[in-house]
Hints:
This protein is mainly beta. It has one domain (2-99). Helix content is 0%, strand content 70%. Strands 1, 2, 3, 4, 5, 6, 7, 8 and 9 form a nine-stranded antiparallel sheet that branches. A hairpin with a 2-residue loop joins strand 7 and strand 8.
Amino acid sequence: MGGSFPSAHDTYPTLAAEGPCQRGGRLMASAEFKDASGNPDGSGSVDSGDPSFARGTWSAANGKLLLRFSNGSVEQYDYYAEAQSMMFKLGGGKNRLWERVR
């Protein structure tokens, strides 16, 4: 028996010029199951929709972006902005690139 379980988690923030922000996200995954001989035996998938949607406000100063959401959560990121892109430093050597979309 075996199989595979690929998944993807996507988040998409929106920062409006006047200070409001919102964040959404979803998890999508699929699975394929195999029998003892390695033959396909079934499959399944899941799409969480948008359970992490939140609204709030944002501010930026001195290379730090602060997001305050109406559910009480707060996120702070070090960032670097250039032209139409922003690079967020997430820690542990990980970064996230956001690009302006019109």
